[in-house]
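Service request form, structural biology core

Requester: graduate student, group of Dr. S.
Request type: structure prediction, single chain
Budget code: on file
Notes: please return the result as structure tokens.

Sequence provided:
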Amino acid sequence: MNIVNHGRRFALAAGVALATVAALPGVAVAQAKLKVAAIYTVPFEQQWVSRIHQALKAAEARGEIEYKATENVTNADYERVMREYATAGNQMIVGEAFAVEAAARRVAKDFPKISFLLGSSGKPQEPNFSIFDNFIQEPAYLSGMIAGGMTKSNKIGLVGGFPIPEVNRLMQAFMAGAKEINPKVEFTVTFINSWFDPPKAKEAAMAMIDRGVDVLYAERFGVSDAAKERKVLAIGNVINTQPQYPDTVVASALWMMEPTIDHAIKLAKDGQFKPEDYGQYSTMKYKGSALAPLGTFESKIPAELVAKVRAREKEILDGTFTVKVDDTQPKSTAR
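Core staff response, request fulfilled:
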């Protein structure tokens, strides 16, 4: 037999076989890994970014994506790094556009075939720019209930990064939860105008403790260090830091980015990615957020308070209670 003809017949038979297998229900043909790049303006270990990085690393470990990431990118360099990733063959780019909205959206327009998924206070943008955010106001409300019930001085302090919607809504929900349990509570609110400055956050928390605050909302790293040092309580945010502060961190509102990241990856691999607001995937309903296990404080929190928190948690999950989304800047109420 002619070797060339034999080769052609073999290739044709293989192609038909592959097409037949692909057509069979329940049989999947292996897809190439999606090339994903991420750009972060802070270190990987920073609370907010760590959630995104962890979800992408999990997808990489499952063999679904090839993943590259750059941390500590300055705002001035963000567009340059984004363009480098876009021209390097990456099919999806993830990051935070909050301080670089115009630049990020400009790059997305220049690369319409790439899927962009960025944290943003704005709207999705045609044809390829989707947004996400940490809509974890529900567990923040629950953690506020715990704070309201645990304070003895009726003074709670909140230390945040910047007064932007992503921070404001969590603080407002936390304060509302505390007020439900303890209408007498007063709040002291401070913003350090940085996403990652633990010494500055600690200093702000220390000043609050000096004014009688005995429970602190640790929206930033550094706050729990002050609480531990001065033997007051803290409420965590985004990640569970109780293992590092077993006698200090009472509860935490957790953010899980897996539902958001997994949804985006599936759409991009299927060629179905489109401009979308992924905010809902951060809610408790989609397992994008949760109140952390009470752990070392399980027996230290009054049973009656825990019962109220669990009842409210159930109402949130079954849709009979809605935590209000309030993006306005929270104000101090302490006299």
